[in-house]
Amino acid sequence: MASPTTHMTRPADCPKITVLVCALNEEMNLPHVLPRIPEWVDEVILVDGHSTDNTVEVAKKLCPQIRVLSQPGKGKGDALQCGVKQATGDIIVTLDADGETPPDEIEHFIQPLLDGYDLVKGSRLFRRRPHKMPLYRWFGNKILASTCNMLFGTRFSDICSGYNAFWKERFLQLDLPLDAKERGCSMEQRMIVRAKKAGMKVREVPHTSNGRIGGSSVLSNCRQSFSQGFKDWFAIVEERFGG
Question: Which pTM was predicted?
Answer without folding.
Answer: 0.90
